[in-house]
Structure formats: structure tokens, C-alpha cells
């Protein structure tokens, strides 16, 4: 990796008893394990103390969904460790962030999806035989944003949503949209779908959802690259948001924290009559109901898999977004590893999560999972 020297290094001291994480961890038996992520958290707060003597520079980038949270985390962390500089490039998106990290340009990557198996193998070139850790540090939702003058309470079923983004429903007066909205027809007009042009973890999450809940309609494989030609393709989450905002009749998808004053649709849960708007509480409930740690063969890895078919009740938001910080288990520079681990540990604390809630409107990662992350970070050197 292209790492900087650290003048002085320190570590984060855990104030809470992380022995709780041993109780929180699920047992892995080869496929998918049921870990703390899939249970209601019972652990106490995970608190950390930042070593004010830390000094050095962390270079990172990736997920634009994390951007607002990263800015707040960096401000709070460097206010306590004044000798530290942290540069996070949100313009890369998850795909670019992982690519640059694998090339050795970043100390960690922000990504809205964990490493694929081939990427985990590639990570050994920079991380050694131990590979990399995917650590879930940000929880939000994929918001379906739209710009329809006069419409502020749009409801969409998963089937309608899939057909809109497959370009099979092309007018706002379509009977399927009318049916989703209690029989109230919207004004006729063409639908313009706005999607990501870059490799995007938000795209990955959205297509994971569509593929899981409407496999007969959404026949394309889940991917971080938008698979359907004919949309208005834009760079980054901000490109999608700005395009939807500037054009009437548009619809797109973005991390909820990035949508500003745009309106997002209520999404049907299951096959019933409930349509749910995004809320942090709904994202947390979705995490508890449907996320589980999946085995990747890397000790300490906390990649999550969401079973969207479990998200059928009115207390959950059906398109949650879990985003990761991806780091090596072994840094080529131990001092740089200590510095990066200190920042990631701060992010994965109760106070770090509350900073994201306040400044990005996200949902907190459950404390039980935060405790697991702290245990995973003990493996980093």
C-alpha cells in the first residue's frame, strides 16, 4: 500500500466490556451464520477513548452514501486527535473506492457492499494471507426519489417499482401505479428513470432487493453496475439526486441521507396493504429482522447478507442499506495500521454512530454488532 509514516501512534481504549461480543457472535457452520446482526441487540454501549497523541494521515475513499457520515466522523475524530489528517474521496463511489484500495492507494475503502470472493483473494496482495475485513459501520436505506409536481405521497409496490426500472412501465398514469395509490390516477406523463453510471454499492443494494422480491420481473443478476439500458445514467449519488431534482417526471434511487429536500416514495412491504416510508427506526428494524453474518473464510469478517423476503411488516423499511469500511488484517506499515484502526474503531462505537445519526440522518448500527467489530479490530496489525 502507499502508506504514510506516522509520527506518533496510539490505540483506542475500550471503555465498555467487549466480552459481550462473544455472546453476540453467531456460530458459523459453513454457509450463512446467524450472528448478532440478526438479533435484537442486548449489549451495553460500546464507548471508546481517542488517543490525543495520534499523528499521521489516513487516505480513503469510496461510498458516496457514507459521505455525510464520514465528514462528521472526521471532524469529531480530528478534534480530539489534532495531529491526524483524514482524506475521504466520495467521488469514487463504492466501486472506485474498492478498486483504488486494492491498488494500494487507500488505507480503507468505503463500500455499500462487501468484497466479492475474487476481490477478497486480490486483497492478499496488499493485506497478506489474512486478507481483508468487511466491517458494517453505516446503516441507512435506499430511497426511491421522484419529482412529480403536485404529488407528495407516492406509493409503489415492489412489482411496480421493478417494472418502472425495467422500463416496462413508462407513464405515470399507468394502471399499476394507480392501483398502488388507492385508485387515484396520477397525471399522464413520461417516466424518466435516473440511475448510477458508475460502480455503485447503492445500485448493488437496490438490485439485490429487486432480484430477491420480484425475481420473475427483475431477471437481471444483482450488480453494482446498472444493467438496464435506456435510463438517464449519472455519476455518483449526487448526480442522481441533482438530475431527479432538476427534471419533472423523474424517478431514481439514492442513499436516504443524500436526498436533501426531495420526496421519497413509500414502498410496499410484503404483499399486503402497508406502504412504508424510510425512517431510521425502520432501517434498524430491518437490520434486526433480516441481516445475518455470512461466512467468508476470513476470521473476523462481518459481511452481512439481507434476506429481503423477511421484510414484510409495517415496522421495517424494505430496502435497507448496510455500508462497510474495508481494511486489511495486516498493514504493510504497522504504525499506519494502528492509526487507521483507531479511526475505524471510533466510527464503530456508540458515540460514533450517534454522530452519524445526527449529521447524516442514518440509523445506528446495533451495539451488539459494534462490539463484534471491536473484537474484529483486535486482529488488525
Structure in a nutshell:
The chain has helices spanning 20-24, 67-80, 93-102, 117-122, 124-127, 158-165, 175-180, 201-213, 236-246, 280-290, 334-347, 350-360, 367-377, and strands at 13-14, 48-49, 55-62, 83-89, 108-111, 132-147, 155-156, 192-196, 232-234, 250-255, 263-264, 266-268, 275-276, 291-293, 304-306, 320-328. By secondary structure, it is α/β, with parallel strands linked by helices.
Biggest sheet statistics = 9 strands, mixed
- Going by CATH, the architecture of the largest domain would be 3-Layer(aba) Sandwich
Sketch the topology as an H/E string, one letter per element: EHEEHEHEHHEEHHEHEHEEEEHEEEHHH
Number of domain modules? 2
What is the CATH top level name of the largest domain? Alpha Beta
Number of DSSP-assigned strands: 16
Task: Give an overview of the whole structure.
There is one protein chain. The protein is an alpha/beta fold. It folds into 2 domains: 13-138 and 294-303 and 323-377, 3-Layer(aba) Sandwich (D-Maltodextrin-Binding Protein, domain 2); 142-282, Periplasmic binding protein-like II (D-Maltodextrin-Binding Protein, domain 2, 3-Layer(aba) Sandwich). Helices cover 33% and strands 20% of the residues. It has helices at 20-24, 67-80, 93-102, 117-122, 124-127, 158-165, 175-180, 201-213, 236-246, 280-290, 334-347, 350-360, 367-377, and strands spanning 13-14, 48-49, 55-62, 83-89, 108-111, 132-147, 155-156, 192-196, 232-234, 250-255, 263-264, 266-268, 275-276, 291-293, 304-306, 320-328. Strands 3, 4, 5, 6, 8, 9, 10, 11 and 16 form a 9-stranded mixed sheet that branches. Strand 3 (55-62), helix 2 and strand 4 form a beta-alpha-beta unit. Helix 2 crosses helix 12 (350-360). It starts with 12 loop residues before the first strand and ends with a helix.
Amino acid at each position: 500500500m502507499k502508506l504514510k509514516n506516522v509520527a506518533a501512534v496510539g490505540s483506542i481504549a475500550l471503555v465498555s466490556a467487549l466480552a459481550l461480543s462473544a455472546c453476540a457472535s453467531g456460530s458459523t457452520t459453513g454457509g450463512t451464520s446467524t450472528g448478532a446482526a440478526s438479533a435484537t441487540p442486548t449489549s451495553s454501549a460500546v464507548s471508546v477513548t481517542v488517543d490525543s497523541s495520534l499523528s499521521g494521515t489516513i487516505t480513503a475513499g469510496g461510498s458516496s452514501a457514507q459521505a455525510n457520515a464520514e465528514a462528521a466522523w472526521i471532524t469529531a475524530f480530528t478534534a480530539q486527535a489534532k495531529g491526524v489528517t483524514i482524506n475521504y474521496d466520495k467521488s469514487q463511489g463504492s466501486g472506485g473506492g474498492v478498486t483504488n484500495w486494492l491498488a494500494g492507494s487507500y488505507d480503507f475503502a468505503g463500500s455499500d457492499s462487501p468484497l466479492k470472493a475474487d476481490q477478497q483473494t486480490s486483497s492478499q496482495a496488499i493485506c497478506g494471507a489474512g486478507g481483508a475485513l468487511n466491517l458494517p459501520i453505516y446503516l441507512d436505506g435506499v430511497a426511491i426519489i421522484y419529482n412529480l409536481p403536485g404529488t407528495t405521497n407516492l406509493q409503489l409496490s415492489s412489482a411496480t417499482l421493478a417494472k418502472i426500472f425495467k422500463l416496462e412501465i413508462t407513464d405515470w398514469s399507468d394502471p399499476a401505479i394507480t392501483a398502488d395509490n388507492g385508485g387515484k390516477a396520477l397525471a399522464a406523463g413520461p417516466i424518466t428513470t435516473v440511475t448510477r453510471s458508475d460502480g455503485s454499492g447503492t445500485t448493488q443494494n437496490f438490485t439485490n432487493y429487486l432480484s430477491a422480491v420480484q425475481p420473475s420481473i427483475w431477471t437481471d443478476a444483482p450488480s453494482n453496475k446498472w444493467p438496464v439500458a435506456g435510463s438517464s445514467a449519472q455519476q455518483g449519488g449526487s448526480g442522481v439526486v441533482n438530475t431527479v431534482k432538476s427534471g419533472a417526471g423523474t424517478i431514481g434511487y439514492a442513499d436516504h441521507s443524500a436526498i436533501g429536500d426531495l420526496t421519497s416514495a413509500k414502498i410496499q412491504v410484503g404483499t399486503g396493504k402497508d406502504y412504508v416510508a424510510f425512517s431510521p427506526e425502520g432501517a434498524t428494524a430491518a437490520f434486526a429482522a433480516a441481516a445475518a453474518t455470512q461466512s467468508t473464510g476470513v476470521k473476523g469478517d462481518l459481511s452481512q447478507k439481507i434476506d429481503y423476503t423477511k421484510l414484510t411488516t409495517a415496522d421495517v423499511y424494505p430496502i435497507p442499506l448496510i455500508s462497510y469500511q474495508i481494511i486489511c488484517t495486516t498493514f504493510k506499515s504497522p504504525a499506519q495500521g494502528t492509526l487507521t484502526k483507531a479511526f475505524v474503531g471510533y466510527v464503530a462505537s456508540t458515540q460514533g454512530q450517534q454522530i452519524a445519526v445526527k449529521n447524516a440522518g442514518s440509523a445506528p448500527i446495533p451495539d451488539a454488532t459494534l462490539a463484534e467489530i471491536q473484537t474484529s479490530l483486535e486482529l488488525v496489525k
